[in-house]
Amino acid sequence: MVRKQIAVIEDEQVIRENYIDYLSRQGYSATGYATRQEALAAFNKRLPDLVILDIGLADDIDGGFELCRELRNRSNTLPIIFLTARDSDLDSVSGFRLGADDYLTKDISLPHLIARIGALFRRIDAMQQEQPSDSQLIRGDLQLDRDRLTAHWKQNPVNLTVTEFWMLHALVRHPGHVRSRDQLMEEAHIYVDSASITTHIKRIRRKFQLVDSDFILIESVYGAGYRWIQ
């Protein structure tokens, strides 16, 4: 079996090597980079299967944010996890707004980190195991392809991250039904606070509105969650 490639972008050498060693012992192929420039040089040749990155990279105070932005421009489906000492709501919301799939602080245990990585990979693997006849989900002008992780609205592509795709899929599977934030987290295999779920939903709406300014089909239900109203 080909081992999943994980890139760790962390400026502290001891911490970086600790993550790499643990990931390697869990069966992953892990490579570390100390700076945004080093990582980008490597990614120009080949993107990894998943990226773990810190926000502050030596003197590059928000280097992780900039790297996340650049990676999202290259791939909408590359799983990205922030792993940082910065635990403010502003930083976590900023990370999700830039398209991260998860945001963790460095006090998380290594087994918990592995669990979150595994959850992201399982989402992708589950889609690839679907039968072709089950890969398409169509609701009016919306077409979701579980096999390719793609979404189209009125035949125009909507560029969603892995997390955003699964959240949208959870809503579209049950049109008219309110999906709570807990249900969206469960179906997207993430564990975040309510503000982060709200940020993901806002990003999904904005992406649809980029291709259709009249898009209004994701409805907020006060105190309950969200629903697809088509």
Automatic annotation (TrEMBL):
Which residues, as ranges, make up the DNA-binding region of this protein? 134-230
Which GO terms of the molecular function aspect are on file? phosphorelay response regulator activity; transcription cis-regulatory region binding
Q: Where is the OmpR/PhoB-type domain?
A: 134-230
This protein's UniProt keywords: DNA-binding, Phosphoprotein, Transcription, Transcription regulation, Two-component regulatory system
Q: Can the keyword Transport be found in this entry's annotation?
A: no
GO cellular component terms, semicolon-separated:
cytosol; protein-DNA complex
Top-rank taxon of the source lineage equals Bacteria
PROSITE patterns the UniProt entry points to: OMPR_PHOB (PS51755), RESPONSE_REGULATORY (PS50110)
Q: Give residue numbers for the modification (4-aspartylphosphate).
A: D54
Question: Which residues does the UniProt record annotate as the domain Response regulatory?
Answer: 5-121
Return the InterPro entries for the record: CheY-like_superfamily, OmpR/PhoB-type_DNA-bd, Response_regulator, Sig_transdc_resp-reg_receiver, WalR-like, WH-like_DNA-bd_sf
UniProt KW Transcription regulation keyword: yes
According to its UniProt entry, the protein's GO biological process terms are:
regulation of DNA-templated transcription
Its signal peptide is: none
PANTHER family tied to this protein: DNA-BINDING DUAL MASTER TRANSCRIPTIONAL REGULATOR RPAA, REGULATOR OF RPOS
Q: What is this protein called?
A: Transcriptional regulatory protein BaeR
Species of origin reads Candidatus Thiodiazotropha endolucinida
Upper lineage is: Bacteria, Pseudomonadati, Pseudomonadota, Gammaproteobacteria, Chromatiales
UniProt lists the gene as baeR
